[in-house]
Design brief:
It contains no helices and 6 strands. Strand 3 and strand 4 form a beta hairpin.
Length: 125
């Protein structure tokens, strides 16, 4: 299942070598969909994808393609627990064309009003 989100890169952790053949790198993104109630979401990259975070910086707005993963774990006592992870496939910096990494306005805000009015434009028609 592929999911795409946009957010502001909040924190990047170092790469951890979990086993001889497996490494992971976690990072935190502040979701931009509701500035009144910011959500800090933990994602992870694995394997050779860990290097993608070397191309971005904390504070940048990024687009993340990821999969929602889950697993069951049974303790030695027989207790069953469930764990979720957000496995990122790609992390790309966004260029929003407004002079920086400023997030786009939320969908519920009206567009800015042009105070010049229709009589002051320089269109020939």
């Amino acid at each position: 299942m592929g999911i795409e989100v946009t957010g502001k890169l909040h924190l990047i952790y170092d790469t951890k070598q979990v086993t001889e053949r497996f490494q992971k790198r976690e990072f935190v993104v502040e979701m931009l969909d509701n500035p009144k109630y910011p959500q800090m979401v933990l994602f992870q990259l694995t394997g050779n994808r860990c290097d993608q975070l070397d191309q971005v910086q904390v504070g940048q707005t990024v687009r993340i393609d990821f999969s929602l993963r889950g697993r069951e774990w049974k303790s030695p006592k027989g207790e069953v627990k469930y764990f979720n992870s957000l496995d990122a496939w790609s992390v790309e910096p966004l260029s929003l064309g407004r002079g920086g990494d400023e997030p786009p306005p939320p969908d519920d805000e009206p567009p800015p009003i042009d105070d010049a009015g229709p009589d002051l434009d320089d269109l020939p028609f």
